[in-house]
Amino acid sequence: MPAGQRYAVRQTSGEADRGEKQNIGRSEVCSSPNVRRSRSREEAERWQVRGMQFAEHQAKQIVGRSRTRGEAERGDRRQQFHDVWHEDVPHSLRLRFTALHREVRCSSIRQDRHSSFPFSLLQIPRSIPGNRRRPVACFGFPVPMDPQRRRLRLQALSLFLFYLVLSAHCVDLSWGKKKKHEIKGPIKTIVVVIMENRSFDHILGWLKSSRPDIDGLTGRESNHISASDSSSSEIFVSNDAVFIDSDPGHSFQAIREQIFGSADTSLNPAPMNGFAQQAASMGEGMDRTVMSGFAPENVPIYTALANEFAVFDRWFASVPSSTQPNRFYVHSATSHGAMSNVRHDLIHGFPQKTIFDSLNDEGLSFGIYYQNIPATLFFKSLRKLKNVLKFHNYKYTFKLHAKLGKLPNYVVIEQRYFDCELFPANDDHPSHDVARGQNFVKEVYETLRSSPQWNETALLITYDEHGGFYDHVPTPVEGVPSPDGIIGREPYYFKFDRLGVRVPSFLISPWIEKGTVIHEPNGPTKSSKFEHSSVPATVKKLFNMNSNFLTKRDAWAGTFESYFSLRKTPRTDCPEKLPEVTRSLRPHGPKEDSSLSEFQEELIQLASQLNGDHVLSAYPHIGKAMTVGQANLYAEDAVARFLEAGKAALRAGANESAIVTMRPALTSRPAAGDSNPAVQTS
Fold first, then answer.
1. Residue 96 or residue 682, greater confidence
2. What is the per-residue burial (b if ≥16 Cβ within 10 Å, else e) of 443-482?
3. 355 and 482 share a domain?
């Protein structure tokens, strides 16, 4: 966050109104101004402060600085310390040391170049004023001979040495927290990757030729151009999909037509006969596009994963609608009535309880590794200050955390959603290159495979929705419970009582037998299906959590925790490397001057909220005039500002349940020398 960026902190609902604005940049050192501290007490605190100053010095080294390769390892360790300092050290203790730090000047610091640890040593004077006896050196610290003073100084020394160990090794401590939740099963970390807009038959349907146990394509499946006229032209499925330069229809209305062939949704089973008809209405040749699928050799990573681990051939999108509502179900088992983006909800954040909240309540950890903007920030609770440090830049931290065995219990990895020349999109959303998505999945798998946490890890890969592409398996239309009783907006008034189209999903772990195909779930009800709500439902059971289900939907959804208990020991033959993706499926590079997709516009509206621009009159159309390249820069800048503002508010002592609200930049920025941004609570 640039120096001088101004922001406000607003209290969330349920918090007491303080009744006045406070300058939380200042902290009182003593609980009462009338308390006199003895000289020995003051001197002891000075030694404590030196330990704190060192810790702050280490943390500040990583902010706003470009590092050379020689500095990379030390910088990464500083980043680890910074995260642990703010996550694991109690807020009250951090505030106490911060106050002391402001009272006492830091001693000069020198770098110990002979040490293998990435920290500096403090230059400590060899004598202490007021000490009547000759000091005794201890690890470079003069220790008084007087018993009372020696006790105080040794306490300060112990505290300082703790900070050295903490910064050097990133010790995972949990002061002041509940006893750590015990996970009984073999899986301690579950990693979730949600790709974009492809159906099962489009990605994996043609794998049936070599894997007959998978419910895929035979080549005889077809749609008529007119679903109501059997004499109209018939479009058969094909395996010649390479690159999709357009974005097939996947709105609620379009999906209804694809599933039922008309507006009549009473048919059961669903005929799945309107894909070609709906696509033909969008443009010439689109009917054949949506009926095509990839040959297995063109998606080598998925082919390898399906053969080496498990594939679901009955996993459905949670709602027959577009991206964002389905993504909400992955983490909260409801879209809170959303069928598409709504300005009010995007600005204020979706309020439903999430699996992230349940993990926090149980004392379990989570982390979100994003690449340009985390879509999970649509959830209001994730914008709170206590969750700011849960967001990590994928490029700099995912491989490091995996290598160190520091991945949290629940990991969400978000892709690059904007297709730029320097960093092309890798989310598989049309018209993005599927080869980029294959390489991304390959990178995630190989990183986890080489991690010391591998034998305790499960990787789930799924797609948010089918993106308008054909699938032959009927969508479940009965026995699906509404998650929370909320009815969708006009004109459809959808009750959220049927699922979306089938999507590709993989379950990867050394506890999964090779070549597993997971069909229907075994409960919890006769009508239960695998869908996105299966994720929080399984996490609850996998981590033996005491919290309630989030909604009626995850209480109903099928779960897959039983597949980790079919073996007594983890496999040792899991491939360390996946096949190389040697062929780009796109005939040209990214087009940064392209207009935004509906999903990208939603992300820009989220970015404008994070950046404070949502109060401007241009907000409703803020993404309409942007190109993909411009949107990428805008989104990355907004996320960086929001997260840095949150970290600054935490350092200043803000309530961890508060939410940072940025102010719009308008036409000017605060002066660069303004290093004390205004922080307000209301």
1. 96
2. bbbbbbbebebbbbbbbbbbbbbbbbbbbbbebbbeebbb
3. yes
Residues with Cβ within 8 Å of residue 497, at least 6 apart in sequence: 480, 481, 482
- Which run of H or of E encompasses 137? strand 136-138
Query: Residue-wise over 394-409: b if at least 16 C-beta within 10 A, else e?
Result: beebbbbbbebebbbb
Asked if residue 129 and residue 90 are part of one domain, the reply reads yes
What local confidence, expressed as pLDDT, does residue 664 receive? 77
Query: Length of the chain, please?
Result: 682
By the 8 A CB rule, do 586 and 456 touch?
no
Beta strands across the sheet bearing 391-393: 391-393, 366-370, 410-413, 189-195, 457-463, 505-508, 310-312, 516-518
Phi, psi angle pair for 623, to nearest 5°? -100, -10
R_g of the chain, CA atoms, integer Å = 28
CATH number of residue 432's parent domain:
3.40.720.10
Same domain, yes or no: 60 and 196: no
Alpha carbon distance 315, 529 (integer Å):
7
Using one digit for the tens of pLDDT, what is the confidence trace for 161-170? 665 555 444 4
Shared domain check, 459 and 322: yes
pLDDT at 207 over 50: yes
Full-prediction pTM beyond 0.85?
no
Domain count, the chain: 2
Residue 122's Cβ-side half-sphere holds a number of Cα atoms within 13 Å equal to 26
Tell me which long-range contacts 99-106 makes (C-beta under 8 A, separation of at least 24): 99/27, 99/28, 99/29, 100/29, 100/45, 100/48, 100/49, 100/52, 101/49, 101/52, 101/53, 101/56, 102/27, 103/29, 103/49, 104/45, 104/46, 104/49, 104/50, 104/53, 106/50, 106/53, 106/57
In terms of Cβ atoms closer than 10 Å to its own Cβ (0-12, 13-18, 19+), residue 2 is middle
> Domain of 80?
37-169
User: CA-to-CA distance for 451 and 314, rounded, in angstroms?
Assistant: 30
Same structural domain, 196 and 112: no
- Which H or E run includes 490? none
Pairing of strands 391-393, 659-662: unpaired
- By the 8 A CB rule, do 404 and 84 touch? no
70 φ/ψ angles, rounded to the nearest 5 degrees:
-65, -25
SS (H, E, C) 501-551: CECCEEEECCCCCCCEEECCCCCCCCCCCEECCHHHHHHHHHCCCCCCCCC
Residues 6+ apart with CB under 8 A from 665: 611, 612, 613
Tell me if 80 is assigned to some domain.
yes
In this predicted structure, what is the pLDDT of residue 15?
43
- C-alpha distances (whole Å) from 215 to each of 311, 460, 609 are 11, 19, 43
**CA distances in angstroms from 276 to 47, 147, 230, 269, 469, listed in the order given:** 75, 87, 13, 19, 9
Taking residue 105's Cβ as centre, other Cβ atoms within 10 Å add up to: 9
